[in-house]
């Protein structure tokens, strides 16, 4: 129990694979090198082209889906796990605000002009749906939104699934660029996604983490990744990725009003 009487939640896992995508940092090796002080690549693409999807689905997928799937597949590849076998958790603060802005504007001006494809992509579990189609995955998939605590709550969900018996779980967290009037109340800049394959039994030579939910306020994020990508709504995940890149052993993730996910990191 914490000092205020809140039940203590303490969960652990091994990290088998890491994926990452951001504007200018198109994979985890580039992001890790940047976090350690290197320059960012000079020829990074404007958006990924997720090879998991068939060409027609790749064209239909919005940017948020593309980055979520790119990071997720990279994490699975790094872990040596078949994407078709993994239960997954997809966490996003806003889903796709660009599509939400389009839907609102079109419904207000010309409702009959709504694009079926954009309507299809407007749901919060769009990335999870594309993932299960592209990977041919029949394992359970969860879509989570918890405003600025979305990453921490997604991580808790993945860890809880491991504690409940899953061998390994994929977590993919992402957000895109806000557009229109929504940008004034739900600001978000650029594209950002991070993914982890978490396992109940850590492999030798891979990091392991232990997460404890406590009553506290998360300190300001530090490091090159949070400094560069702070404008994206999924920036609350960056302290963990900064720590993984630089070999740090403790981070605090915002988990809701007055709540923090305390994450200890160690070598397995």
UniProtKB/TrEMBL annotation:
Q: Which domain of life is it from?
A: Bacteria
- The annotated region (Disordered) lies at 36-57
According to its UniProt record, what is one Pfam family this protein matches?
Ketoacyl-synt_2
Domain Beta-ketoacyl synthase-like N-terminal: start-end pairs? 45-200
Mind telling me which SUPFAM superfamilies this protein's record contains?
Thiolase-like (SSF53901)
Alphabetical list of InterPro entries matching this protein: Ketoacyl_synth_N, Thiolase-like
Q: What's this protein's name?
A: Beta-ketoacyl synthase chain length factor
Species name for this entry?
Cognatiluteimonas sedimenti
């Amino acid at each position: 129990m914490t000092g205020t009487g809140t039940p203590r939640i303490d969960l652990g896992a091994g990290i088998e694979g890491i994926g990452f995508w951001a504007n200018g940092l198109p994979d985890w090796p580039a992001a890790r090198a940047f976090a350690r002080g290197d320059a960012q690549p000079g020829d990074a693409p404007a958006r990924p082209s997720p090879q998991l999807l068939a060409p027609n689905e790749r064209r239909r997928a919005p940017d948020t889906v593309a980055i979520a799937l790119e990071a997720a597949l990279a994490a699975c590849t790094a872990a040596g796990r078949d994407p078709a076998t993994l239960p997954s958790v997809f966490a996003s603060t806003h889903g796709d605000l660009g599509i939400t802005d389009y839907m609102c504007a079109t419904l207000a001006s010309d409702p009959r002009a709504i694009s079926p494809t954009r309507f299809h992509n407007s749901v919060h579990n769009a990335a999870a749906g594309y993932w299960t189609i592209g990977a041919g995955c029949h394992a359970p998939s969860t879509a989570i939104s918890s405003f600025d605590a979305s990453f921490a709550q997604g991580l808790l969900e993945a860890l809880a699934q491991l504690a409940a018996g899953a061998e390994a779980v994929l977590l993919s967290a992402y957000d895109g660029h806000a557009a229109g009037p929504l940008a004034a109340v739900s600001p978000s800049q650029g594209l950002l996604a991070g993914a982890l394959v978490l396992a109940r039994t850590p492999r030798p030579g891979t990091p392991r983490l232990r997460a404890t939910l406590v009553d506290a306020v998360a300190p300001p994020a530090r490091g090159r990744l949070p400094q560069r990508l702070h404008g994206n709504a999924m920036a609350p995940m960056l302290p963990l990725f900064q720590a993984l890149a630089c070999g740090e052993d403790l981070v605090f993730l915002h988990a809701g009003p007055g709540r923090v996910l305390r994450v200890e990191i160690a070598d397995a």
